[in-house]
Amino acid sequence: MLLFVDDLTVIDCSYLCAERGIVGESWIVDIELDGSLNEQSMVLDFGRVKKQIKAIIDRSVDHKLLVPSGHAFTQVTHSADDESHWVDFMRPEGRSIHLFCPAEAFAYIDAEKVDALTVTDYLRAVIKRELPGNVQGLRLSLRPEAIDGFYYHYTHGLKKHDGNCQRIAHGHRSKIQIALDNIRQPVLEKQWSERWEDIYIGSEEDKVEIKRLQRSESAKQISEATHVGYSYVADQGLFELMVPKSENDFIDSDSTVECIAEFIAAQIKQTHPEQRVKVKAFEGVGKGAIAYA
């Protein structure tokens, strides 16, 4: 007997990619369970699927940085108490990426690259360990939202958030809709999707001189000539990041989706002062903020 739940949850995360850098991603999760009926004449109660399995997925990969531990660029160093990790992703030509974060901010995918298939394999192994004995089979499907229009992949961190959004390198794959005087503007939407393609959006107040960061030996070669440094302390601990300048953009506020929508609207207003600007900025799938200028 097969039990299925479509749209079980959405994974909002970021991952390290040799070509693209830090990539913000949003995957919709569908699940099928294959098993015999239990004493309740069910494979598994839907409430338990939606609560227990979603919780496993959330704590395993959601709002984390997914690291391809099998890639030659990946270097991981543990602090003495193992509560924090240095992750160095040694891309060449001044494009390396360096982090120092609490261990729970990372998920290590045992593969040369992170994609929907390798994350599916990782999650399947984690979930199977916690399923009841009557469930023999498990199928997961991770899929991007079907978007008819423009979108960008962005990564950020929200130090003031009391949940997992405080992690400095998590992200989203997000639609962008822009209107002038209530008329959609695909040219502007395309411009922003290109500006923020695979981008790290940082807050100006979190910028820190690189020499002040908790650098690993591999990161000591990095300087302001090629990289931007960020650091902040949140409830979960100290978060630090060094990202290539070419893959970074700043806003002068927090990088919540509300502030992102306001930032885009204000930028567009500068070049279209006589028109009413509306920006509908998404944060992942089916949620976001609308700003006017």
Automatic annotation (TrEMBL):
What InterPro entries does the record tag this protein with? 6-PTP_synth/QueD (IPR007115), 6-PTP_synth/QueD_sf (IPR038418)
Would you identify the family this protein belongs to, as annotated? Belongs to the PTPS family. QueD subfamily.
Q: Give, as in the UniProt entry, the pathway in which the protein acts.
A: Purine metabolism; 7-cyano-7-deazaguanine biosynthesis
User: What are the top taxonomic ranks of the organism?
Assistant: Bacteria, Pseudomonadati, Pseudomonadota, Gammaproteobacteria, Alteromonadales
Tell me which Pfam families the record gives: PTPS (PF01242)
Task: State the reactions this protein catalyses.
Answer: 7,8-dihydroneopterin 3'-triphosphate + H2O = 6-carboxy-5,6,7,8-tetrahydropterin + triphosphate + acetaldehyde + 2 H(+)
What EC designation does it have?
4.1.2.50
Name of protein: 6-carboxy-5,6,7,8-tetrahydropterin synthase
Using the UniProt record, name the top-level EC class of this enzyme in a single word. lyase
